[in-house]
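Bench notes, afternoon.
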Amino acid sequence: MLMIVNILNIVPPVDSAFVAGTMDLPASLSLCPDVPATPGTGWDVAIGIISFIMLIAGLALAGRILDVALPVVGCFIRWKECVNLENSLRLRTNRNIVASYFLTLLCMIAARYRLWAPSFAEGFAPFPFLALTFGVVVGYLLLRMVLAHGLKPRESRRKGNYTVAIREFYTYTIGAGLLLSVTTGILSLCGTADELIRTVLIWEIAAVYLVHIIRKAQILASSMSLFSTFLYLCALELIPTAALVAAALWF
């Protein structure tokens, strides 16, 4: 009843409702009220499609992910687990495939939260920035491959562990991908600010990279002197990583 009374109060009298041959209704009774438009952006649609594809790919790789999960965790605990993983053809193959998946996921997370953000890319739209992130990661991996191939030792007794030390990077890529994916999901659901998420992710990457460096040093030191291990670490890790950090700080 109150609703009917309110409507009657706002409807004008019949003799004043028509102005110049047209019916003059109050704005509150307009059949097409002004509603602010909230169109979705192309980036939102693209992210939705890419996320769906990554979800399907993750489900397809679920068996391989479960197969390498425990060995990857073991590599964070003992360096010899890296050797055991590399010596298994099945685990090594699954590790490489799963690492490719998580590397793609890491690129998406890095682009979303601008984990690598040089000043020249500040004005980049999301899509170009995602392409830039993928390009930088590919360049970083190529530089690592060139250095690893050029510095490969000639002594046969060193070649086995040297190969393990080079390829264990893929193992810790899986660990970083899992860690950052879980962290991003939890913090996003909690409504955490993007800047805080970015800080947490950077610290997590630094922690995983530190473990990766320690394990690589242990693997190399098992077949060469400490001085040679230090030189190899400087050449294989310091040069590409320093180039990556320098590009973000100075360009």
